[in-house]
Write a structure and sequence with these properties.
Layout lengths: L2 H56 L3 H14 L4 H13 L3 H14 L5 H11 L10 H14 L5 H12 L2 H14 L5 H12 L3 H16 L5 E3 L5 E3 L1 H9 L5 H4 L13 H23 L1
Antiparallel strand pairs: 1-2
Helix pairs in contact: 1-2, 2-3, 3-4, 3-5, 4-5, 5-6, 6-7, 7-8, 8-9, 9-10
Amino acid sequence: MSSLRISGIVLLLAFLGVAALRTVAMRREQQATQVEAAQKERVREFWNTYRKASQALATNDLQAAIPLYQAALSLKPDHEDSLYYLGNCYFQSGRYQEALSMYERLITVHPLGSSRGYMQRALVHACLETSAPFDLQKAERYFREALRVDPDSGAQMGLGEVAVLQGAWPKAWDALQVANADNAMSVAAPYLLGYLRWRADEQAEAWRWFRLAVQRVEVKKPPVAWSEEGNVKADPKLRWQALARQSVFGSHWLRLLDYVKQPDLSPSLMEREYQRLQGVLTAAQKRVRG
């Protein structure tokens, strides 16, 4: 075979090799483009679904929000806010075990930074609803974990509330004093400090703390973005409702909103409030002993 013919064959093989390589490269590029496009579509779908879930939560439509957050998590399983808000939806719906599962996943995703997961697990175990998994030892442990992870998490207030439920009055007083000093806007702290003075038959001190709690509810602020409400513009009432969900006794001190514009605020109203709270605590302490 002549050298010329051999050279031609070599050139042809080289050309075919180059063409094959180019074809493979083009296919890989097309596949990469398709994968990238699919990933972008998945991201777009996630954020659209998450926004819809947040809008449903903002209107307190939990039945619509739950499947939307579930869909969002199917697209992005480790998204912290979706885990948190889905857990909250379950919690508010009385689906306590499912809520605990979401909060556990949240802690697993971000163990060193998820004070929210610990806080919410504590609140579930301190929940006063009869069907809730009431366990004050667990509640206290999780509040302490939240405090360890983030001293500004609000867990100090939770520890004071648990101590009130336990009937550990000196412990409750100390914890609530710290919580009140840490947060000059807290309503729960003066409300419960007033209760502790009331049960000790120190009426003047009880009335001072109770009035302070009412005054703090009365504070008006401009609308702010409030993530607990699905990142909507929240008026003061919505803000207090969101904060009340982060408090064991939130549904009780939230009633103080009804007293804000009453010209005849009097110790008799305080007496009625604390008598009602006393009944709640008596029932809770029976559960602790039982």
